[in-house]
Amino acid sequence: MKVFLRNLTIISSAVTFSIFWQPVRGETIGNQGIRRVSVDVATGNSSSDIPLIQLAPGYGVNISFIKSGEIVDKVWLDNPAFASLDVDGCLSGLAQKCEQSGATVLHLRRINPLKIPQLPKTNSSLLTVIAKSNSGRKVYVFRVAMGDTVPKYHTVEVTPDLPEEPEIRNLPSATNITNLQVISSGLEIAQQQRLILPNSRLQRRVKSFLMLMKSGYLINDAASRSGISLRLVNRLIELGSNSQIGTLR
Predict the structure, then answer these.
(1) Where are the domains of the chain?
(2) Distance between CA atoms of 155 and 64, rounded to whole angstroms?
(3) pTM (whole model) above 0.70
(4) Distance in angstroms (rounded) separating the CA atoms of residues 199 and 14
(5) Cα dihedral 200/203/208/211 (nearest 10)
(6) Kind of pairing, strands 34-38 and 27-29?
(7) Digit-coded pLDDT (tens) for 71-127
(8) What is the dihedral of CA 106, 110, 113, 119, to 10 degrees?
(9) On the chain, which terminus has fewer CB atoms closer than 10 Å, C or N?
């Protein structure tokens, strides 16, 4: 019975984590355990919260700057009482003397809590990373906290910002109710013309998008969360507004 309850607790924790941790705009999790975070998000220059990295016992997390083409020049971990920090190169200040300072990958690992004089006891910390490239220097910030569940990723990959998607256009009204009606009509026409097949993955995503809009999400946020492009939303708007027949891209 005790084993059953313990297993049930583990399953419950994993389910809770999967429900409440969802990638935000500028973040994705790949099939190979890679969590991709855009430069804008990791530097705090977007509307999203700065990335949270949870460290579980026995599981380390890498932070890679290889894709962004940058070299890490300096790091600060404000609370080293529960996490250790290592790098793939040599950084001055990490108990090292370097002829040439620089790294591209950081490795965080959970450790048993230490008692450090003058350091307040907390379960979280701020990690600050100074990275440089040919275009200049950037300041990256990550929240680091203790976690209890097995992470869904082993590497946080900082990636260059993607080009912005086109803005929503041809909206006859700024109200969500009217937008819903127009886009719903566009979906019906697309289905009639076999541009979107019934019960297809794309149809399910569009319906998820409409449900999010109905619950109050703005168009851009609803599109991002449901996994459809703004190009598709624009096309549905055109079909719903003008009943035009075309090919969805």
Answers:
(1) 2-159, 176-242
(2) 7
(3) no
(4) 29
(5) -140
(6) antiparallel
(7) 999 999 999 999 999 999 888 767 667 777 789 999 999 999 998 888 888 889 999
(8) 30
(9) N
